Amino acid sequence: MNTQRTLRRPVACAGIGLHSGNKVKLSLKPAPADFGIRFRRTDLGGVEIPATVQHLGGSAYATGLARDTGTVETVEHLLAALVSLGVDNVIVELNTPEVPIMDGSAAPFIYLIQEAGVKALAAPRKYVKVLQPIVISSGDKRIALYPSEHFKVTYTIAFDHPLLRHQERTIRISEESFVEEIAPARTFGFLKEVEMLRQRGLALGGSLENAVVIGDTGVLNNALRFEDEFVRHKILDVIGDLALVGHGIVGHVVAHRGGHALHAALAARVLQETDAWEFVESPVDPASVDAPVAVPVNGESLAH
């Protein structure tokens, strides 16, 4: 993945916001090299909000961005899909302040990107290559970034629930591994927590169609897509949140009981600790410029 990429043509979808419950129209449009990923609020006259940690708006139950009068919420699943398929430059148009939750995973966004197509641009892609460990701890929560020759994630979760006492997974993130093993993993929550969120005006668009809901004795809705779907979804979240660094990462993320706030804190710390990493880039192959790029899709995994 030497060169930057964008979409070949515009594409759109519709859905509802997980927390707002509002109907959302989302469009993805091609953008030039070095443009980055930017959210554009069409209902606010085209206010643009770059997907960078400098514009972090909130990270309590989802990751949000803010700039001037514009905000956009629940960006992490779409960002994870875009960066994992190597889409560096794109305009994301929205007519409300929240990205649609779709089925609670990144799989629908993979389909959307495949439908649009991806093409190479005449500009090299820069990566942040980790040289020294970057570590953040908060109580029993911890996240770190270590040197590695690849982008790899190790995630551990632990909850006081029979289903979730301990899950751990390590995966090297590539386009193929993300599409097949991470993208289909859905967001999850506990029934008691969902009821509390709704009393606070959140999770109004949540349903058994777009989240795995866990009761006292087990999962309330349909069967899990993976035995360890919960920790896979946390990997999906951290990929999307670390996209706010603004560049691909060459390093090993290790997280224990993390969440959006800790993920965002690591993204911010990376940009602060400039001695801990270096930019690397590869020369552009002129023959690849403007050429279509195959987007991997595992139909069996994503059709669930």
Protein traits:
alpha+beta; Ribosomal Protein S5, domain 2; lpxc deacetylase, domain 1; five-stranded mixed sheet; 22% helix; 33% strand; globular; disordered C terminus
Outline the structure in words.
With about 300 residues, the chain is of the alpha+beta class. The chain folds into two domains: about 5-125, Ribosomal Protein S5, domain 2; about 125-280, lpxc deacetylase, domain 2 (lpxc deacetylase, domain 1), CATH 3.30.1700. Helices cover about 20% and strands about 35% of the residues. The protein contains seven helices and 21 strands. The strands form six sheets. A five-stranded mixed beta sheet has the order 2-3-9-4-5, covered by helices on one side. α1 (about 75-85) crosses α2, α1 crosses α5 (about 230-240) and α5 runs parallel beside α6. The chain is globular, with a radius of gyration of 18 Å. Residues about 300-304 have low confidence and may be disordered.
